[in-house]
């Protein structure tokens, strides 16, 4: 099994990278320091929110996958989703990155429609 970067270091690196590009980043929920899972909420100018989590793949790796997109008609539903996920996994880090084309910071390319 490959060793992984401690969660708090990965979170700090994401925040610094986004801020270096002129974006805004914040920790919405602090998880377990070393082994906590990370959810990244990407927004652009406060809108078009998407939640990404690493999901296990068939080959044993873990890849970023969009687990929830904000419905413009029902923004509260997205907030409730984040609250539920945090309650389900108290070790989960939830960080928000408000920057253009935020997927590039987690290694994804292309636009979400």
Beta percentage is 25-35%
**Count of DSSP H/I helices:** 2
Low-confidence stretches: none
**Span of the ends, CA to CA:** 35 Å
Query: Architecture of the domain at 27-104, according to CATH?
Result: 3-Layer(aba) Sandwich
Number of strands: 5
What is the CATH superfamily classification of the domain at 27-104?
Protein of unknown function (DUF1491)
Helix coverage percent = 10-25%
CATH class group of the domain at 27-104: Alpha Beta
Radius of gyration based on Cα positions: 14 Å
Mean pLDDT: 90
Structural class label: alpha+beta
Q: If you had to describe this structure to a student in words, what would you say it looks like?
A:
The protein is α+β, with helices and mostly antiparallel strands and 113 residues long. It has helices at residues 7-20, 75-88; strands at 24-29, 38-44, 47-56, 62-69, 93-98. The protein has a five-stranded mixed sheet with strand order 1-5-2-3-4, sandwiched between helices. β3 (47-56) and β4 form a beta hairpin. The longest helix is centred in the first third of the chain and has 14 residues, at 7-20. The chain is globular.
């Amino acid at each position: 099994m490959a060793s992984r970067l401690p969660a708090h270091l990965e979170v700090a690196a994401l925040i610094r990278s986004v801020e270096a590009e002129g974006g805004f980043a914040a920790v919405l929920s602090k998880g377990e320091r070393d082994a906590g899972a990370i959810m990244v909420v990407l927004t652009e100018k406060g809108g078009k929110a998407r939640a990404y989590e690493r999901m296990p793949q068939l080959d044993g790796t873990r890849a970023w996958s969009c687990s929830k997109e904000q419905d413009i008609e029902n923004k509260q539903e997205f907030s409730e989703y984040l609250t539920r996920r945090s309650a389900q996994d108290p070790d989960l880090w939830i960080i928000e990155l408000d920057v253009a084309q935020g997927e590039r910071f987690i290694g994804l390319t292309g636009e979400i429609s």
